[in-house]
Amino acid sequence: MERITIAIDGYSSCGKSTLAKALAKALDYVYVDSGAMYRAVTLYFLNHQVDIRDEEAVKLALKNISISFKNIKGKNTTFLNQQNVEHEIRTMQVSNFVSPVAAIPIVRRKVVRQQREMGKEKGIVMDGRDIGTVVFKDAELKIFLVADPDIRAERRYRELLAKGLDVERKAIKANLLERDHIDSTRADSPLRQAEDAIVIDNSFLNEQEQLSKALILAQERINSKARL
Length: 228
Ligand code: CDP
Prior knowledge:
The protein is α/β, with parallel strands linked by helices. It is 51% helix and 17% strand. A 5-stranded parallel β-sheet has the order 2-6-1-7-8. The protein has a 3-stranded antiparallel β-sheet with strand order 3-4-5, covered by helices on one side. Residues 12-13, 17, 34-35, 38-39, 98-99, 102, 128-131, 179, 183 line the site of cytidine-5'-diphosphate.
């Protein structure tokens, strides 16, 4: 069967990774959480007190960073320099610092290079902010996921609570809005809908419903590629 590239972009915490994981599972594709890579870089910067205004310090730090993913007990897990950081990269401390880090062009250059390498063989679902506009401009299927901000904040609150993190609803919503602002106004690869992206509003869709919509789109693209 023909394999395609699927790019899923959208604002913070709108269910991109839930959809991307489910799609990858249904199609037997590789799933890549591009946000986890920016979170891993951010964790390294925090742990090593890298001053993000100091370009030389940032460059040096980037040389010492290696990010990889492994499937651990069926879960996509992020590794920073061979250490499992999946839990640490989801903390509010990282969430509060990730958008300024992800706005730095040399950080993006390193991360995007690795993302393109991972997507070379197609058969990939990647979610993020710039996947359809920058990383895989030629992706056969681009989805731009949107959801009401209050619903997004509530979902993230429950997700973090379930992971045992000590969080406050208000702080979560403030963080989502702050990241949306920084991510969509930065100069390098701002978050925006690609012209050829299909918008799905999942405010009132459950996981199965959003998956069904996306699978129909994916199947259409796979079929039309097979006809070429
Ligand atoms: O899951 P959530 O929506 O909270 O965010 P994420 O996907 O883990 O991404 C964390 C942050 O990384 C975003 O707020 C962006 O600042 C940055 N990011 C990016 O700049 N480009 C991407 N392709 C993915 C994430």
